[in-house]
Every structure is written in structure tokens, then in C-alpha cells.
Amino acid sequence: MAYHGPSYGLSRECAMKSQAKFSPERAKQCVIWIEEVTGNKAEMEIKDQIDFAEMLKDGSILCQLINAIQPGSVKKINTMKAPFKQRENIEMYLKACGNYGLKEQDLFQVNDLYENKNLYMVVDNLFNLGGMTQKKGWDGPTLGVRQSSENKRNFDEDVLKAGQSMIGLQYGTNKGASQAGMTPYGASRQIRPEDFIKPQAEPDRT
Asked: Cα 201 vs. chain centroid, distance in angstroms?
């Protein structure tokens, strides 16, 4: 497990916020789901986020998970304990998730897992993956809520033009408008003597 010493200042504050967002209960749900999908029991009991990270850190279990859902997603899973090989496993898993249909905001960065920076994002990713499997009609164990399908509406050109015209009328029209009598921006207003002469009152003819 990578250890970078105590954090201070802003780094410590960010670390504490990240820890606060981590839900042990949701993480345990992820572990149970992974075990059911892959058919492999976790070698350790998951008590906190450190245990959760230790279980997934080398990326091999994540690769097994995505291969069980979508066979052939990761061609070769690295079994070496070298850090760059473990990171490569995580990268291959994330790429496979993207190919499966997850959006960029549904993924996490390698260091979020490998260096325990934002483990809650790993949990969120697994829940998003579980939701995507339900959306795709996968008949295996489920996790999370099914992701909604995108509701695209196609309008023909006449409908779009009519909509644009309606927007124009709502905002009014400038047809016949003129800038006559307006002072140009930045120009000083000319003061005329007649501006100060009060008009004489009309005589009372009653």
C-alpha cells in the first residue's frame, strides 16, 4: 500500500473530505456484487476504505469483473506485482468500461484507487457499471439503479423553423426601428441655449 506520510493544510482538508464521501456500506455492496459476478470470494474481510483499496489496487479483480460482464474486454490481465503493471490493469479496466458505455464522468483516475485519493469515486464507478449492465439487459447479479436511456427527439426542418419564428415573436421585433435621435456611444451631448428657455404659457382666452 502506497504511503505518502501525513497530509497538511489543503491536502489534509481534501483527504478528509474524500474520506467523508466514502460509504463503507456501499463499498461492501460493491464487494458482494464483484464476488457474485466473478465467482471469486474476497480473500479478506472489508472493514474500511483501506481494505477496499487493498482488494482492488492491483486491478486484476476489476479486469475479471468487466470480462465476466463483457467477455474479452481485457485481453490479458497482468499478474506481476510491479506497480506499472498494476496501474496498467486499472487503465485497461477503465478503458473497457468506456467501451461498454460508461461516460467519462462515470470513471475514475488511476491514482484515485492506486494511491487511495478518491476511493468513493471507485465505488461510484462500480455502481454506474452495475446500472449499465441492467440497462443493457445483462441477466447476471445486479448492483445499483438501472441507467436511464437517452430520450432523443428528432424534428423535421419545418418544425425547427416554426420554433425559431415563435422565439423571435416572443422577444419582439425590430422592424422599422431607427437610431435617429440617439447619441452615439462615447459622444458628449451638445447643449443648446434653447434647451434652457421655458416655453411661454398660452394666454387664457376664456
From this structure: 72
Asked if 147 and 134 touch (Cβ cutoff 8 Å), the reply is yes
Give the integer Cα–Cα distance in Å for 75 and 96: 10
Closest CA to 61 of 134, 117, 126: 126
Distance CA 88, CA 58 (A): 9
Cα 69 from Cα 94, distance rounded (Å): 14
- Match 422577444 to its residue by C-alpha cell: 171
98: left (phi over 0), alpha (psi -120 to 50) or beta: alpha
- Express each pLDDT in 120-153 by its tens digit: 999 999 999 999 999 999 999 999 888 776 555 5
pTM of this prediction exceeds 0.85: no
